[in-house]
Amino acid sequence: MSESLEEQSLITNDKSNILLEAKNISHSFDYKLFENINLEIKSKESISIIGMSGSGKSTFLNILSSLLNPKSGEILYNSKNLYTLKKKDLLNIRREDFGIIFQAHYLFRGFSASDNLNIATLLSGENIDKDLLIKLNIDFVLNQSVGELSGGQQQRLSIARVLTKKPKIIFADEPTGNLDKDTAKIVMDTLFDYIHNNNAALVLVTHEEDLAKQCNHTYKLENLQLKELK
Ligand SMILES: Nc1ncnc2c1ncn2[C@@H]1O[C@H](COP(=O)(O)OP(=O)(O)OP(=O)(O)O)[C@@H](O)[C@H]1O
Ligand SMILES: [Mg+2]
């Protein structure tokens, strides 16, 4: 049954389920990247960020995901300012609640695929999800060392490792960058299923506009601003 207009506007205006909020974020390195950016991310919601190479997408994702203190502005996670938290509290959030999928994935290369997954289970107390590994088509590489895996297998393994710890927000920087179309679809379906089934949120950085538009909101980083495209 469709929601009444009144109910819809209540949902849209409801700020209680905001997980992460960026307020007036500005940052620069050699040149100014962005100025006074505001963004809200709610649970179960997916948002995507597109923009030219060098526009600052990865930098903005680092700021959102607790890794880089912005020149000015605040990042609120569950209404708490990430960058004024005690180091220990920030580390706990990063370890337990945030799942960060980097543009360059950081697996432990001398170790096997299953060792890399076991590290995530040790840190989080969660179990390895066999169905997830089958879905990502990496269940048969568990005993191989990371160095023996293809680039796409390594990427899927790093995504499985992140999901294994059951994060509340996934930050994914070009998670399908090395993958063929079919495998990219499997990865994106896995990420969308994950956020749906776990009341989690997704912040996706991508170059692919088609992929970006599958998210609830799509933004473009351009001329120092984040503009909503849809
Ligand atoms: N740690 C850093 N120190 C100095 N400059 C940096 C640093 N990180 C990024 N930059 C610069 O900031 C700019 C934006 O980089 P960023 O990685 O955020 O771009 P991007 O939009 O993710 O690009 P791409 O699409 O190529 O991944 C670039 O000019 C980059 O050289
Ligand atoms: Mg980048």
Helical residues, percent:
25-40%
What structural class do helix, strand and pairing data support?
Answer: alpha/beta
State the end-to-end CA separation.
Answer: 24 Å
Please, what is the average pLDDT? 90
Small molecules held by this entry: adenosine-5'-triphosphate, magnesium ion
State the CATH topology: Rossmann fold
CA-based gyration radius: 18 Å
* The CATH homologous superfamily: P-loop containing nucleotide triphosphate hydrolases
The side-by-side strand order for the widest beta sheet comes to 6-7-8-3-9-10
Q: What pattern of helices and strands is seen along the backbone?
A: HEEEHEEHEHHHEHEHEE
Please work out how many helical segments DSSP would assign.
Answer: 8
Major sheet, described briefly? 6 strands, mixed
Integer count of domains: 1
CATH domain class name = Alpha Beta
Strand content: 25-35%
Label the CATH architecture: 3-Layer(aba) Sandwich
Which of globular, elongated, flat, extended, rod-shaped describes the shape?
globular
Point out poorly predicted stretches: none
InterPro entries: AAA+_ATPase, ABC_transporter-like_ATP-bd, ABC_transporter-like_CS, P-loop_NTPase
Protein name: ABC transporter ATP-binding protein
Pfam family, one: ABC_tran
Domain ABC transporter: 5-229
